[in-house]
Write a structure and sequence with these properties.
- The chain has 193 residues and is an all-beta fold.
- The protein is built from no helices and eleven strands.
- The protein has strands at 23-26, 36-38, 45-49, 59-63, 73-76, 88-97, 110-116, 120-126, 135-140, 152-159, 166-176.
């Protein structure tokens, strides 16, 4: 190819291919998280941010307060509610402690959840591989009964441990099939680039 024929992307932008990005639940690029609700707006706040981003220009931040944020949630109503034909929910996640605590040693400090109007709430825990580094997380929806995800009315995150007032950044929440392996070109077995 000649130089003029090459695709040039602005720094920080990511190229998207076909069905892998077909159902992006939220990429936060509109700099608007008013569609997200915190169960405790005083202690567990949500915001769009440019402080830490993984894909393009904005990500989603959840700030917590030690002793006050445990079991708090941040949820949204997805535009796509019938997830029965999708096998994975994937997103980028970065976690870090904002205060010092001898108890702040847990690596399982947040969970991803969804609620189906007929079947109720399902969740899975997320293990943080390394604090202050981005990792990719996939939830194998194929492990759930397809009836349990055919009428999803909310999806979100639950704070499981609030020692050290963890701060979470989340980016590019999307649904896709397990045979779409494009993400594996960018992600190693640790969930890092």
């Amino acid at each position: 190819l000649k130089t003029a024929d090459q695709l040039n992307l602005r720094d920080g932008l990511v190229q998207s291919w076909g069905d892998f990005n077909n159902v992006v639940l939220d990429d936060f690029e509109d700099n608007d998280v008013t569609n997200w609700t915190s169960s405790d707006t005083t202690n567990t706040k949500v915001a769009a941010t440019t402080t830490q981003i993984k894909v393009n220009d904005y990500s989603f931040a959840i700030t917590t307060v030690v002793g006050s944020s445990k079991t708090d949630t941040a949820t949204t109503t997805p535009g796509t509610t019938n997830w029965s034909s999708y096998e994975r929910l994937g997103f980028w996640l970065r976690a870090g402690y904002t205060t010092t605590s001898t108890d702040a040693t847990a690596t399982q400090i947040i969970s991803v959840m969804l609620n189906d109007t007929a079947s109720g709430t399902a969740s899975t825990t997320i293990t943080i591989n390394e604090m202050d580094n981005w990792q990719y997380h996939e939830w194998a929806l194929s492990t759930l009964d397809s009836v349990a995800i055919d009428s999803v009315d909310w999806v979100g995150f639950r704070i499981d441990v609030d020692y050290g007032s963890p701060l979470f950044y989340i980016d590019q929440i999307k649904l896709y099939d397990s045979d779409l392996q494009a993400g594996e070109m960018f992600v190693d077995s640790e969930g890092s680039l």
